[in-house]
Design brief:
184 residues, 60% helix, mainly alpha
Length: 184
């Protein structure tokens, strides 16, 4: 039985935080003024949860490769989950300070964060798929080695026993019907 692959959605919290940080750092690098009222105090908790979840997803991906189970979640599913979470969080935290959704989405940090989410999802998908494929290659190599054991030289003591073989010297067969005797 092949197991479901929803376990790789454990990557969503870590991907969300990475995309969020990329968006805000890119906005700061472009000279955009970041508002201090964003309410990003929760990010530390999300990182605390997201990092172990990401390691669990990578470990599970490795095991899926060893066990010939389904590949991880598709890129599209992961990207949509991260985008939905990012949009929900950003709209909620900006609504808490009185900004409407149009004003929130027009902020450079939010727009760049929206662009960063699919990029981070692509990177995470690539890492998880590569981990699974590496484990599958290891499992295939182990199966191949088990199917064809190597002939290794084995040390055995030399014995002085000689094998003597006896060969027939006549060409008459030993089996068959009796040959009648001819008298002269």
């Amino acid at each position: 039985m092949r197991a479901l692959r929803w376990w790789s959605l454990l990557l969503v919290p870590g991907g969300f935080v990475a995309g969020h940080e990329l968006g805000y750092q890119a906005a700061a690098a472009l000279g955009s003024a970041l508002d201090a009222s964003g309410g990003h105090g929760y990010l530390g908790l999300v990182v605390t949860v997201g990092v172990p979840f990401a390691f669990a997803a990578l470990t599970r991906s490795f095991l899926a490769g060893l066990r010939d189970q389904l590949p991880p979640v598709r890129y599209r599913t992961l990207a949509l989950a991260q985008l939905a979470l990012y949009l929900t969080v950003e709209l909620a935290e900006h609504a808490a300070v009185g900004l409407d959704p149009a004003a929130t989405l027009s902020r450079p940090a939010v727009a760049l964060g929206l662009l960063a989410q699919p990029l981070v999802a692509a990177l995470l998908t690539l890492v998880v798929r590569t981990t699974r494929e590496a484990a599958a290659a290891i499992a295939a190599g182990a199966a191949r080695r088990a199917a064809f054991p190597l002939d290794r030289p084995v040390w055995r003591p030399v014995s002085d026993v000689r094998v003597v073989t006896v060969e027939r010297t006549t060409s008459a067969p030993t089996r068959g019907p009796p040959v009648p005797a001819v008298s002269a």
